[in-house]
Amino acid sequence: MAEQLAVELDGLDARLLEELRRDSRTSFRKLADKLHASPATIIQRLHRLEKSGVVLGYTADFDYSRLGYEFTAIIEVTIAKGALLEVQRKIAQMPGVVSVYDVTGERDSMVIARVKSRSEFSRLVKKILAIDKVQSSNTHVVLNTVKEDYRMMPNVVTAES
């Protein structure tokens, strides 16, 4: 896989991303007023950020516990040599799997899962272990979430900085 180059952002781009992180439903006109730019400039910048792959989409933020998802787990997975990507793709397709990470360390992959019940959680772990080439797993059940914000905004270093 080819390494992707970082997109160079200026101050307006960085402020636009921050506003979208806070509320992606804000109108172009309101964004323009807030950022002291024309709506056409905001639209052009946003299209450029979408085309370059910086903005991947727009989504709502949910309180999953209020939707009944009581179990969050981190599952460490060891995978047989040569099957890593194939197994990770299979795991990624499973209901309840939120994220799959290729990692360094003693394990090959980390899986973040969110499910509604203990029985659903048990079925998911057993399905992962049943995948050919999965050698072992080590599961951590999350007791309390101290912080979880996938909308975090990195400290953007701009060309103007």
What does this structure look like?
The structure is a single chain. The model has no long low-confidence stretch (mean pLDDT 90). Strands 2-3-1-4 form a 4-stranded antiparallel β-sheet, with helices on one face. It is of the alpha+beta class and 161 residues long. Strand 2 and strand 3 (109-115) form a beta hairpin. The protein folds into 2 domains: 11-51, Arc Repressor Mutant, subunit A (Orthogonal Bundle); 64-141, Alpha-Beta Plaits, CATH 3.30.70.920. It has 5 helices and 4 strands. It starts with 10 loop residues before the first helix and ends in a 20-residue tail after the last strand.
Tell me the major beta sheet: 4 strands, antiparallel
Q: How many domains, in number, for the residues?
A: 2
Order of helices and strands: HHHEHEEHE
The strand count comes to 4
Distance between the termini: 31 Å
| Mean pLDDT score | 90
Low-confidence stretches: none
List the helices and strands and how they pair.
Layout: H1 11-22, H2 28-35, H3 39-51, E1 71-79, H4 84-92, E2 97-102, E3 109-115, H5 118-129, E4 134-141
Antiparallel strand pairs: 1-3, 1-4, 2-3
Short description:
With 161 residues, the protein is an alpha+beta fold. The chain folds into two domains: 11-51, Arc Repressor Mutant, subunit A; 64-141, Lrp/AsnC effector binding domain/regulation of amino acid metabolism (RAM) domain (Alpha-Beta Plaits).
Key descriptive features of the protein:
161 residues; alpha+beta; Arc Repressor Mutant, subunit A; Alpha-Beta Plaits; 4-stranded antiparallel β-sheet; 19% strand
